[in-house]
Sequence to fold (404 residues):
Amino acid sequence: MLGLLIPPPTLGFEFDVHYGLIREVVDAAGKTMPAIGAQVTSHSDATDGFRVKRDGPRLEIATRPFPVNDAGAKELAATTAGILTFARELGAGCKAAKAQAITVPGVVGQPRPFTHPKSLTAGLPLVRLPVRQQFDPSNCTVWASPQATLTIPLSSVNALVNEIRDSLKVGMALTGGATTRMGLQSEALFRAQRAQPPLSLSDGRVVNTSAFTESLTGFLILLASYLWTSELPHHFAEPKPRDYEPFAKAYLPVNVKAPFSEVFAKLLSADEQLLFREVFALGAARARLFGLARRGAGAADGTRFLFPPGRQELGEASVHRRQKAEFGTVPTWDDLVEHTLNSGHNGWGDRLMVPLSKKIDISKTFPRVALELRRIGFAAMFDRDWERLMKRVFKLVAKLNPSL
Fold:
């Protein structure tokens, strides 16, 4: 009977399309630029299954979370049809539009503004955004960088990483190769999975390998992947930086949407929590956790900053500047562990370690955790491939959620 009380897993998608709003174009039309995050069209979760918001210059198509069951599959299919209709409308609007003599600083060519009938602001001009600082008058294709937020048990995290890695061998990979931006970031996940915890303790005891449950293993992979982000060979040198993200969450191939303090307290058993404290978190044992991300690590490595510094903005490292603004200081490896054990650390409370990311409490997903897969697809994906991707990820979530 208890199993009947457990809600089904869920899955939602985001498509950051290469169409959007440019201030100079909006100003020329005499309209007001919507705020970042503001809804742009009248599409709604209740009626259409998705909303269209402003995300920087781009339009973000965000679905509601769908239950991963038979009913959810039908809802997702209907929503997909609506999303593809909207995508076709964007392409048609672009094709019918004429270039206008509007100067956009740093961009070559002229934009081709058009309007959409479901815009919440009548006459609000949309444009196909420039590529490499150029407007392409002959190209009206619709593409996006897809993301997915799914819920799975901690015990399935290891299997998820296997699926992401194995997808590189088939079409429509869920990440890029090691020479690509997303592939480099995925290395944090793969290396965290490959790292084998030392099983001998300082007092001579040997850890029983059976004590490392699938749930604890999944927890360690996620935690270690955050540490690994600052150890990867990111390069910020111009003119061709290999990585140039300004936000901490952009360095994560898998963004844990619940605070680690909640994941630790609510998804690990008392025995698993005790083992984590003794083997990886308390006193000198913490070096063992750091060793999952840095060979030969010691307790002193706890002072390392969490996440790379990010590209320079106004003479400052963008990622660390935003972290300091959020937390009052740039979080370190020690801070990650302390905050995991105690949400009251530094007065931070139950919050995510990455600013500008909306948390999803464990109370809404129990006995699962919400994970955001960033840049799936991989890279720029044309609208003709969106349906196939969505069906594929839906099946993957069902696979990763065996009956509880």
In short: The radius of gyration is 23 Å. The mean pLDDT is 89.
